[in-house]
């Protein structure tokens, strides 16, 4: 009786452990690495800003969403020239090819944080959650703590002249 109970308890423990590990594994993105993340600081009354970073995924994945408690709306955006006009629009997903770094930077793809609930102060941090979907349709997320700065850390060049200074941005509408 003692041996039978002991094996039963061990089996229950092992099964519980395996289920817990499986649950944790499915909640983590498949080897997605984020480097150089930062969000642009704002001034009083400014309702929108951008967040930028380099994302590398070990397998083909898509960035399908973003959220943060500091903004009423957070979206993945693209800026590009159409003729002689720079246009910005939300994109439903951003492809992350296996092993290739995708840059989210001023004047290109970026995270747009709108309807800010409070100014983002230089030298503070904000929580940001990235949501991914792999080729098999499995969703995962990555929680980040993103530093807030006036300019990109290190020597970063804007995609277009003047794009490193978005402090005049006060409103964004679709």
Task: Note down, in words, how this protein is organized.
This protein is mostly beta strands and 174 residues long. 15% of the residues lie in helices and 45% in strands. Strands 1, 2, 3, 4, 5, 6, 7, 8, 9 and 10 form a ten-stranded mixed sheet that branches.
Q: What's the CATH architecture name of the largest domain?
A: Sandwich
Which segments are poorly predicted (pLDDT under 50) over 5 or more consecutive residues?
A: 10-29, 156-174
Secondary-structure class? mainly beta
Would you list the SSEs in sequence order as H and E?
HEEEEEEEEEE
The CATH class label of the largest domain is Mainly Beta
Mean of residue pLDDT values = 80
C-alpha termini separation: 70 Å
Tally of strands: 10
Rough shape?
globular
Q: What's the CATH topology label of the largest domain?
A: Immunoglobulin-like
Oligomer: single chain
Tell me the name of the CATH homologous superfamily of the largest domain.
PCu(A)C copper chaperone
The major β-sheet equals: 10 strands, mixed
Report the total helices: 1
Number of domains: 2
What's the alpha carbon Rg, rounded to whole Å?
21 Å
């Amino acid at each position: 009786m003692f041996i039978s109970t002991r094996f039963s308890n061990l089996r229950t423990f092992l099964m519980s452990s395996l289920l817990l590990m499986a649950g944790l594994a499915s909640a983590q993105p498949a080897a997605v690495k984020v480097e150089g993340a930062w969000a642009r600081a704002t001034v009083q009354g400014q309702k929108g800003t951008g967040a930028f970073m380099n994302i590398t995924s070990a397998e083909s994945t898509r960035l399908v969403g973003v959220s943060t408690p500091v903004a009423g709306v957070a979206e993945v955006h693209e800026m590009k020239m159409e003729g002689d006009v720079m246009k910005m629009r939300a994109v439903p997903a951003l492809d992350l090819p296996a092993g290739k770094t995708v840059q989210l930077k001023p004047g290109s793809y970026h995270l747009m944080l709108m309807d800010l609930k409070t100014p983002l102060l230089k030298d503070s941090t904000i929580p940001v959650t990235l949501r991914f979907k792999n080729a098999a349709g499995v969703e995962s997320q990555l929680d980040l703590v993103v530093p807030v700065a006036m300019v990109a850390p290190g020597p970063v060049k804007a995609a277009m002249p003047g794009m490193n200074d978005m402090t005049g941005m006060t409103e964004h509408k679709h």
